[in-house]
Amino acid sequence: MSDLMSIKGGRDGLRIRFDDSAEWGLLLEQLEQQLNQNQAFFNGASLALDVGERTLTTEQLTHLLNLLQHHGVVAEALSAGARETRNAARTAGVTARPLPRYPDSSPQVSPDAEALLLIRTVRSGQVLRHSGHITLIGDVNPGGELIAGGSVVVWGRLRGFVHAGALGNVDAIVCAMELRPTQIRIAEQFATTPQEAGPHRPEVARIAGAQIVVESWEAFKK
Amino acid sequence: MARAITITSGKGGVGKTTTTANLGTALAMRGARVAVIDADIGLRNLDVVMGLENRIVYDIVDVVEGRCRLRQALIKDKRLPELCLLPAAQTRDKDAVSPDQMIDLLAQLRSDFDFVLIDSPAGIEGGFRNAIAGADEVVIVTTPEVSAVRDADRIVGLVEAAEKGTPRLIVNRIKPRLVSRGEMLSVEDVLELLAIDLLGIVPDDETIVTSTNRGEAAVYDQTSLAGRAFLNIGRRLNGETVPFLDLTDQPGVLDRFLGMFGRRRS
Asked: Locate the Septum formation inhibitor MinC C-terminal domain: which residues (chain A) (predicted)?
């Protein structure tokens, strides 16, 4: 990812933090590049924007919101230190509110090294999206979606949609106690689960030779 | 203070209205004061199923818009004085009532009743949001079909997101013969996916068609297995512990069930 902005996923959703000093036009250019490169990850996402202490006009914010909307991204909130920016946000039609603080992470840690642990059922119509790894204790039902920048571990049945490495990481893997997704994607590759019901055992999916292969956990760990 | 319970499903045609009518009747038969509300504005049915269509003077939209008092719109059941219906409007649509107005309406009803059952429209839009707005509990009805269960799963997520707690489940129209042949999802299959508490199982039963068309609840018919299932669900809603009708494993019950259709077990 770019060093002028960071995109992070947390329990409360995705967040973009824009660098305070970089030129705004350059930031937008980089953001557009990110959105274009990672359409699968961003389409349908809702984002919180953290513009730091920067002062932005209504026009600048409207431009940003249009850019996001064009890529299927909803800006659900905006955090700004400057009062002018907060006022401009209201005019542009996005809620200005302080965002909860994340614990400071060292800049050396790559975004997909951050993992999200959740204990729940992901039901039909629910989407879990995270820029790092996702560890889910629970089932993903048909119609539910997991979208991760990194790898996905499901301690349960994975019967919905899963996309690992959605930010382009071809080394991402998907493992589940019962791996029967309606569709699985890793980076740019995708596959479906064969109709005939195989044995229910823990399995791992990864990219090998430009396609997705699935093997039992026993075979994978060798 | 009444408990407000919304009956919903996501998918249409799985038996929400029949369930609401029968549970309302079952609870009133046991002496509870019950109001049933038809929240399916524009496609009202509950009045027909309860045989009260010709008594409607005012409806829920008239109440909300102040054309009558709540008491004037409530229709007493033909047989049970403890049971009342608040009918939907037929000439309006779902936008005629807001979630806040539903909450106000329920607040007025609570003091006079033990149970308020709300018959939700299908779907996940405004009508569904209205129907769950003031609910204390939610009951989801599904049939053992993949599409209905998928929608039920979606509804469970929405109900939990609306902070209404985990809903309970009624599996309607089970056909034990198909289940035993592996041609229909079993109750266990449905529960394994939805992972919520089971409130009741209702077998597929032709007597429901006749009772619904006649406007008489199936719970009055002691020979109707579905009627008995609804009676049991009413008792469970009332806090009693009643064993489930075991439709698949006990040949005795299965024989009786099949006997109603005049068939013999093969």
From this structure: 120-214
Q: Please check the confidence at residue A36 and state whether its pLDDT lies above 70.
A: yes
Binding-site residue set of B: 11-18
Structure tokens at B50: 């309860």
Which residues in chain A have their CB less than 8 angstroms from residue B154's CB? 123-125, 143
Q: What does the pLDDT look like over B8-19, one tens digit per residue?
A: 999 999 999 999
Q: Is the dihedral of CA A138, A139, A144, A148 positive or negative?
A: positive
Of the candidates B145, B32, B131, the residue with the CA atom closest to the CA atom of residue B80: B32
Judging contacts by C-beta atoms under 8 Å, the chain A residues touching residue B125 are: none
Over residues A180-212, the pLDDT tens digits come to 999 999 999 999 988 776 678 999 999 999 999
CA distance A214 to A191: 10
CB pair distance less than 8 Å for B157 and A142: no
Residue A121 has its nearest CB partner, among B151, B158, B195, at B195
**Model pLDDT for residues A104-142, shown as the tens digit of each residue:** 444 444 454 588 999 999 999 999 999 899 999 999 999
- Range B179-184 average pLDDT: 92
CA of B146: which chain A residue's CA is closest?
A: A142
Whether residues A123 and B153 touch (CB distance < 8 A) is answered with: yes
What are the angstrom distances between the C-alpha of B251 and each of A60, B141, B179, B187, B228?
73, 26, 14, 17, 17
pLDDT > 90 fraction of chain A, expressed in percent and rounded = 46
Q: Which residues contact B249 (CB under 8 A, 6 or more apart)?
A: none
CA distance to partner chain A, nearest, from residue B149 (Å): 10
List domains and CATH numbers for chain A.
Answer: 5-98 (3.30.70.260), 115-221 (2.160.20.70)
Q: Is A58 on the interface with B (CB under 8 A)?
A: no
Q: Are the beta carbons of B195 and A139 separated by less than 8 Å?
A: yes
Max mean pLDDT range (A49-58, A147-156, B218-227): A147-156
What structural domains and CATH numbers belong to chain B?
3-260 (3.40.50.300)
